[in-house]
Amino acid sequence: MKRILFCFILTVVVCSHVANAQGKKASQKTLYDICGDPTATCRTSGGFGEEDLPIKVLGELEWMGEYKSKAFYAVILQSRAVKEQTNPVDDECGGQFTTRERQNAQALFPSNRVFSTAFGCYHFEHSYTNVNYKFNFLAVYGGATEAAANAVRAKALKSYPGANVRKMQAILCNVCH
Fold it and tell me: What angle do CA 157, 162, 166 make, to 5 degrees?
């Protein structure tokens, strides 16, 4: 009996170890490049809209796969409080930046992608690390280095006095929320 119990425990421990070792999906093992220049062609399998900062993910997306970009710097131009959507059928979410607001900002930064968030809405596929999800933001891609982002911020301060630099990663979540 002790031998059977020992074999059972050993089997559970080994299976648990193997499951943990294989637990990360392939999508979680790679950090992806950002498509930060709106004038350049960006090949990606992700469904990115004009308001998103695309990640260069090629091939079929994994079900519930989470794809993170390499770290980059963004210049946060503006932020506003989220209006939570409590009922996805009846309620409209709020606090997002309009297409016109994003396009006006994009006109100031022709070589750097302007992007915004839609936090508070019932379903979103794109998010970012190092942010407060109680606030939506309008931002511009600052680059891979802090020095590049500070140069973009200097230009942004002329139209957006509260602009600030933030290091983050973009996240694409394929049917996760």
Answer: 95
67 secondary structure, DSSP code = E
User: In angstroms, rounded to a whole number, what is the distance separating the alpha carbons of residues 73 and 149?
Assistant: 6
Indicate the DSSP class of residue 48.
-
- The Cα 3–Cα 20 span in angstroms is 26
133-175, pLDDT tens digit by residue?
Answer: 899 999 999 999 999 999 999 999 999 999 999 999 999 887 6
CA 25 from chain center: how many Å? 18
Cα-Cα-Cα-Cα torsion 67, 84, 168, 113, nearest 10 degrees, comes to 90
| Three-state secondary structure call for residue 34 | strand
- Tell how many helices (H) and how many strands (E) occur in the chain: 3, 8
| pTM of the shown model | 0.79
Q: For the chain, what is the radius of gyration of the CA atoms?
A: 21
Please list, in sequence order, all residues whose beta carbon lies within 8 angstroms of the beta carbon of residue 137, skipping any fewer than 6 positions away: 76, 77, 78, 79, 97, 116, 117, 131
Q: In 3D, which of 147, 166, 73 has the Cα closest to residue 113?
A: 73
Which among 57, 13, 34, 19 is positioned nearest to 174, based on CA atoms? 57
